[in-house]
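We read letters as residues; the fold follows as tokens. Both lines appear below.
***
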Amino acid sequence: MSVKHGLLALLERGPMYGYQLRAAFDSTTGGTWPLNIGQVYTTLSRLERDDLVAALPENEGQRPYEITGHGRDELKKWFATPVQRSDRPRDEVAIKLALAITTPGVDVAKVVMTQRTATMRTLQEYTRLKTQPGDLPWLLVLDAMIFQTEAELRWLDHCEASLLRYEPQTLPQPADVEVPR
């Protein structure tokens, strides 16, 4: 998700200034993606430049923003467009394990076990949070986090099983790789 679209969605509720937007974003997502206030104001500046929001007159030292018609069109388009897997951030755990397998001296099984332990603790924390009351937006975000964490545990099981069958291949050494000119 982009901060841009998150702020547009929040401004669809009504005019807000930067700190209100940050608080509303944190409240809606349960603080799972904390926004830096500088990030909020930088994004608001870009949104204003692109005519997606408009600054309103200052009120008690705060400048509220409102969504424009172009902003509403952009928001509708965003909600109507599915998120592609390629649009999501790179998975650091997958990259870490891929590199661990090919890095001499790394105990890959230990890397997997360390990650599994941390992931299990995270799942336990999310499950504990699930027992507390919350608004539907936060509960849906929490469910997504639980499902993703469960999927990571299943994937780590798969990695562990794959490691048992893995036979390392000889990789070319840096001196063996020809550099194109």
